[in-house]
Amino acid sequence: MKAQYKWDSKVYSKHFTIEPSQGYVNPNSNLDLEVTFHPKQADPDIRYNKVACEIKGGETLQLTLMGKSVEQDSSSTEQLNFETMVRKPATQSITIQNTEDKEWAINPTISTERDDSKGYFIGKSTLIVPPKSSGQYEVTYHPKAMTKLMKLKKEGEEEEQEVMDTHKGSLFFPLPNGTALLYQLNGTASEPEAEADINETSTAKKAKNIIISVQNWAKVQQRFSASWELETEDSSVFIRGANTFDVAGESTKDYKLNFLAHKVG
Predict the structure, then answer these.
(1) Which of 109, 110, 168, 264 is least surrounded, with the fewest CB atoms within 10 Å of its CB?
(2) Rounded to the nearest 5°, which phi and psi values hold at 10?
(3) Per residue in 120-142, pLDDT tens?
(4) Are residues 104 and 182 located together in one domain of the fold?
């Protein structure tokens, strides 16, 4: 009868993958397992002793996993630069060449330099590349906040210079042939475009409420600040509304703006 097995993947999944991690082995047959080492930082001694593989109705197997990772050669790092408006995605493609006679299943790793930009660079968790062929991997930059100018004093210079504090990340491809590809990701997010043009007509000396739908794209509640200005100063025009406005995460709420003009025009 078939033997059911299951590796204790919670123990080693941070640095190793065993595929398939669970399944069945037919009677009087062998099953090949593929072990992938995917470290996220340099470490001379990564090991997991006596990792258990439970065999239903049989004895538990044990395997020790060991690996060593070194810093990526900076000369082999490539750059991907993105520019877009905040909350508007921008996508670029990377070509991965498979030089071997077998199919490649690659598990890329995307990370960001700071936690406040986590999730701004996204891509699929697996890339399949056919034998002796190439595959396209798409990276999307979808910023939720604008990048800002910051003052920086370079070594040997007295005056500070303004530089763009870009969103930074990295994309790592551990290739099955033992090599790897590393991409440095840089994203610049400018101010958003207008959500809509609102045209309203009101009667002089009669107040009118203008309802504006405000969307919160974040998963948590946000407090928005509201401000307005007239193209030309006019003391007969009054605009009132709340200076701050709370919207629950991933939802939409109406904002009320009161408009009053004492003169026709």
Answers:
(1) 264
(2) -60, -25
(3) 999 999 999 999 999 999 999 99
(4) yes
